[in-house]
C-alpha cells in the first residue's frame, strides 16, 4: 500500500516492502513526471534481498560468492545506472529515493543527502554520525576489530542524474542483516565495515529498540528540514542528452 503525504515542496511515498525491480520502475515513472515539471517525490522503501551493481562494478569483482550461491539464497543481482560499486539491499534497510531536480549542482545535492541522513541519525540517538571526506555516505566512529581499525559505514549513497533530475539515492541500515554484506566488498571499500542502527544500539548499551518505522519518521522530517530552502527549479531548457551523470557510492 502506498501512502501519499503532501508537502509544499515534495511528496513522500511510503512503498513498504517492495521488490527492487518494481521500485526501480516507479522511480522511472516519477522521474519522467518531475522532468516534465511535476512535483518532486521522496520514495521510501524496503527491498527484498538484492545486490545492485553500479557503473563501477559491471564485472562484479567485489562479489565474493558465486551467482549460483546467491540464487540459492534468493538474492538477485541487478545492474543499475547509478554510480559506484556493489551494495546490498534487504529487509531492515530504509532506502530513500529522492526524485528531485538537481541540475548541475550534483555535489551540493550529495552534501544535502548526507546532512539529512546525519540529522535523522542524531534524532535516532547516534550523535557521532558524520560524512567521511573523499567518500559518499554516512559513518559513525571507527571501531577496532582484531587489532585493526575499521571505518563504520551506516548509510550508503549512489545517485544518477538524468535530464537534470536525480534517480536512486541512499540506503540507511536500521535492522539490516549485516551478514549479507559479507557476500561482497561493500562499495569496493576493503577497510570499511557496514554497521546498522540496531548494531550501534547494542554495542553502545542503549536499551531503545531500533525500527524502520521510527527511522522513516526521522528521515522524512530531516529531508523537510534540510531541503527547506532548496532550489526546486529545473533549467529552462532540458537539452542535455539523456546520459546519466554518475556520482557517489552505491546505495
Automatic annotation (TrEMBL):
InterPro entries, sorted: aa-tRNA-synth_II/BPL/LPL (IPR045864), BPL_LPL_catalytic (IPR004143), Octanoyltransferase (IPR000544), Octanoyltransferase_CS (IPR020605)
Annotated BPL/LPL catalytic domain residues: 36-231
UniProt main location, coarse: cytoplasm
PROSITE patterns registered for this protein in UniProt: BPL_LPL_CATALYTIC, LIPB
Pathway given in the UniProt record: Protein modification; protein lipoylation via endogenous pathway; protein N(6)-(lipoyl)lysine from octanoyl-[acyl-carrier-protein]: step 1/2
A Pfam family it matches: LplA-B_cat
EC code(s) of this entry: 2.3.1.181
Binding site for substrate: 82-89, 156-158, 169-171
Example GO molecular function: lipoyl(octanoyl) transferase activity
Enzyme active site: 187 (acyl-thioester intermediate)
GO cellular component: cytoplasm
The keyword Transferase belongs to this UniProt entry's keyword annotation: yes
Compartments in which it is found: Cytoplasm
Catalysis performed (reactions): octanoyl-[ACP] + L-lysyl-[protein] = N(6)-octanoyl-L-lysyl-[protein] + holo-[ACP] + H(+)
Keywords carried by this UniProt record: Acyltransferase, Cytoplasm, Transferase
UniProt site (Lowers pKa of active site Cys): 153
Gene Ontology biological process terms, A to Z: protein lipoylation
PANTHER family: LIPOYLTRANSFERASE 2, MITOCHONDRIAL-RELATED, OCTANOYLTRANSFERASE
Note: In the reaction, the free carboxyl group of octanoic acid is attached via an amide linkage to the epsilon-amino group of a specific lysine residue of lipoyl domains of lipoate-dependent enzymes.
Function: Catalyzes the transfer of endogenously produced octanoic acid from octanoyl-acyl-carrier-protein onto the lipoyl domains of lipoate-dependent enzymes. Lipoyl-ACP can also act as a substrate although octanoyl-ACP is likely to be the physiological substrate.
Family: Belongs to the LipB family.
Alphabetical list of NCBIfam families matching this protein: lipB, PRK14345.1
The protein's name: Octanoyltransferase
